[in-house]
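can u pls check wat happens w/ uridine-diphosphate-N-acetylglucosamine
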Amino acid sequence: MRKAGAKKLIYLVVGARPNFMKAAPLIHEMKKEPRFLPLLIHTGQHYDPMMSDSFFRELRLPRPWMYLGVGSGTHAEQTGRIMIEFEKICLAKRPGLVAVVGDVNSTIACALAAVKLNIPVAHVEAGLRSRDRTMPEEINRLLTDQISTYLFTTCEDADRNLVREGIPRSRIFFVGNVMIDSLQKHKVLAGKSNVLERLGLKRRNRNDRYALLTLHRPSNVDDPAVLKGILKAITDLSKKIHVVFPAHPRTIKHIRSLGLEKTVHFMKALPARGPIKNDQNLITVPPLGYLDFLRLMSRASLVLTDSGGIQEETTILGIPCLTLRDNTERPITVKEGTNILVGNDPGRIMRTASRVLRSQRFPPKRPRYWDGKAARRIVTVLKARLL
Ligand code: UD1
């Protein structure tokens, strides 16, 4: 029998950068329920200060209760290390629920370790499918959804994907998008960021137009020919418009190994106060914090990316987004939002970017339940099922 007043212990797992903005609204909402005891477990998949620590500060995430420190490695090494370390924690102190978000290696590793111990798993952002099994995230999504007890979805096409894969409807809950919860909550604060001044994009009498680029998918950065092609398109684009490129550590590593640091005007750091001493049209900087990036995204004329979450954020912000992939697990951002799939062909990237820059701005769209209340809906479901 459960002790009177005993709290339901929940392990909420984070590991990589895109997890933090999804976990923040969840833990804040879970903490409002006195019968829940949510504890944050950080696998350490991402460990650079700008890939992890800065997000804890800006999103007011509590310090992780446990830090597994697994770091980088091959997929099997990383996934295996997370499973081994996370299982130890579950055995030492068994939770009533493990909650995982997104589709990174930490997501599947912790879900798998938990489910083998018969601990129920909640997957937040379930049901997204690119149908491209060469993407590591697609494998993580498919497997996590198959073994999870509660599947929380961001859109109705995700529900349909899950039903098609044999998941009982009783496990699927369409609740909306927790990443948009974070965006709504931090939009005003992000408006106070001085990142535009530091990048020299906001001068006394004019606001310069700029495009914002992010790039980190193995399919775009690991193959030198593909990476060179994309960078060529970006260099051409920068003749028309400023391009700001906060680069992921993986991408920086590949740019360095190709000796292209000078071509992309890589700056090791942004000054705390601006403006930078770099009058190039293409500026590559290390990864930015959440608020600075949100500010940059919301004022951009165009975003080019291969990220998943950015396709959703630009949809809500009404900023045109060119996705440098052939497919997306988030088709709602193409159907209802501002997203255009362009792949990684340099000519097509350049042509589409030029067309978008000439055209009118898209009016902001709001897919159903992308309203800042997704975490609240999730906690309502969990309360009804777990308490
Ligand atoms: C991971 C996720 C991806 C997500 C991305 C966001 C998987 C399979 N992939 O990809 O879905 O979109 O995070 O950033 O989980 N590195 C550092 N410092 C860090 C982290 C990584 O230098 O803090 C470098 C290392 O060289 C590492 C490489 O980046 O080998 C890749 O990191 P990894 O966590 O394996 O995958 P990501 O590409 O970041």
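The longest strand covers residues 8-14.
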